[in-house]
Amino acid sequence: MSDHRPPTTDDLLRWDRDHVWHAFTQMQEYEPLLIESGQGATLVDTAGNAYLDGSASMWCNVHGHRHPRLDAAVRAQLEKVAHTTNLGLSNPTTVALARRLVEIAPPGLTKVFFTGDGSSAIEAALKMAFQYWLQADPPRAGRTTFIAIGEAYHGDTLGAIGVGGVDRFTAMFAPLTFAAVRVPSPGGPCPHTGRPAPSLAEALATLDRTLAEHRGTVAALVMEPLVQAAGGVLVHPPGFLQGVRELTERHDVLLILDEVAVGFGRTGTLFACERERVTPDILCLAKGLTAGYLPMAATLTTATIWNAFLGTHAERRTFFHGHTYGGNPLAAAVALESLDIFRDERVLESLPPKIDRLRVQVTRLGGLDHVGDVRQCGLVAGVDLVADKASRRPYPWQEQRGTRACLTARRHGAILRQLGDTVVIMPPLCITLDEIDRLAAAAEAGIRAATVG
Fold it and tell me: Cα–Cα distances in Å, from 404 out to 311, 416, 436, 450?
């Protein structure tokens, strides 16, 4: 632009289509939508249209957009320093956040490794678990296998793909990574395969047998507690997480919990694993850690694992892993303020009526002619679209019914995200009861339009 004029909206829309490669998006079919501003649970595009943020800006926004305290925390940290490396250095804000996370995490998780996003937190956890067994006392070098839950999603980097189980995301890259041993999810029926879910007892019995069959070779089991988010909002039966913890302890296997999507109030408690009083060996956090403001992730672990990495430089026990922006002080500042907001605004105490209202609305959506199943855990719900309600026969995937439902919901004032033909409702925790009703109405309009004919 040789005249240096500010770009028009038309310029930006064209540049977006021409230059920006969007994640999980078929660019040949992409129609630009530029979000320019936000307030609370509402987003506004460049044309002035307002939308309820029904996907919490990819499941990370917690307290709403433009929260004055979060904005102020970022500005205050900018007056000090925007970034300094966490490789052999530190900064007061990040140190304070590490201490705060240790104080609020399940007991025994006392060490914090910072990275930049959820996939990175999982990568760190996998490498940490593998290296731990190599350096344990005594060393157990044969621990090279990971166990994961069917239809799991843990991110898009190669290690995360290895423990992932959503084939449409991972199958292409199988030659580049390892394959985890999989056990069936008890959170079905699976919206992708139609497989009925095993009962709680069956799921735990299968896991027990699997751990026994692979005795001495398993480094860790990795799972999302309570609900598998990107796997299709698969909600586990009560007691499954506790049963998994008991089995991993009995078989001397580490437990990695992925709370990237389900942490920070999403299930009704600060951490999902609190619901069943479980402490993992490694806990992965991201998304809501900074309330959706800045990229940051954290991998928390125990002193037992930490101690296996201690030694002289010559012993080469160091964890040779890290990222440029790991421990970024701007992100740490907003994360600290977010935790203060949880406390001061009594966010967790405000959730039960919102969870109940979402349950009422999701149950109502479950009565629609082409909804085969609905699942909810806290403030996250999944609505499966099916060609035949009685048999739960799915639509041909090529018809993109879920995508069509979410695009239509935009015209009714809501941004939603689909997982295949599952429409996901996952708003910011700050959403009001009236906004939940409006969000469900937009979802209904989208579903009705997408399932005609």
Answer: 56, 11, 21, 5
Longest dimension (CA), the chain: 70
pTM over 0.85: yes
- Tell me: pLDDT of 33 over 70: yes
> How many other C-beta atoms can be found within 10 angstroms of the C-beta atom of residue 440?
22
Calpha distance 391→401 (Å, rounded): 18
Angle at 348 between CA 422 and CA 340, to 5 degrees: 115
C-alpha torsion angle, residues 231, 233, 239, 242 (rounded to 10): 50
Alpha-carbon distance 337 to 246, whole Å? Answer: 35
Q: Does the pLDDT value for residue 209 go beyond 90?
A: yes
Alpha carbon of 323 to those of 85, 93, 320: distances in Å?
A: 9, 18, 10
Give the pLDDT band of residue 360 (cuts 50, 70, 90): very high
**Assigned token pair, 82:** 């925007």
Please list the alpha-helical segments (H only) found in 251-398. 303-307, 329-344, 347-365
Q: Which domains does the chain have, with CATH numbers?
A: 9-63+349-450 (3.90.1150.10), 72-344 (3.40.640.10)
Those residues whose C-beta lies under 8 Å from the C-beta of residue 139, and which sit 6 or more positions away, are 133
User: Closest Cα to residue 256, out of 272, 279, 280?
Assistant: 280
Q: According to DSSP H, which parts of 265-400 are helical?
A: 303-307, 329-344, 347-365
What gap in Å lies between CA 128 and CA 115, rounded to an integer? 13
Angle, helices 433-450 vs 347-365, to 10°: value is: 30
- Distance separating alpha carbons of residues 164 and 122, to the nearest angstrom: 11
Question: Is 129 strand, coil or helix?
Answer: helix
**CA–centroid distance for 52 within its chain:** 20
pLDDT digits (tens, 9 = 90+) for 265-305: 999 999 999 999 999 999 999 999 999 999 999 999 999 99
Q: What residues contact 318, with CB distance under 8 A and at least 6 apart?
A: 309
- Residue 261 dihedral angles phi and psi, to the nearest 5°: -95, -30
pLDDT tens for each residue of 228-269: 999 999 999 999 999 999 999 999 999 999 999 999 999 999
194 pLDDT band, cuts 50/70/90, is: low
**Separation of alpha carbons 214 and 318, rounded Å:** 28
Q: What is the mean pLDDT of residues 53-58?
A: 98
Helices (H), 372-432: 401-411
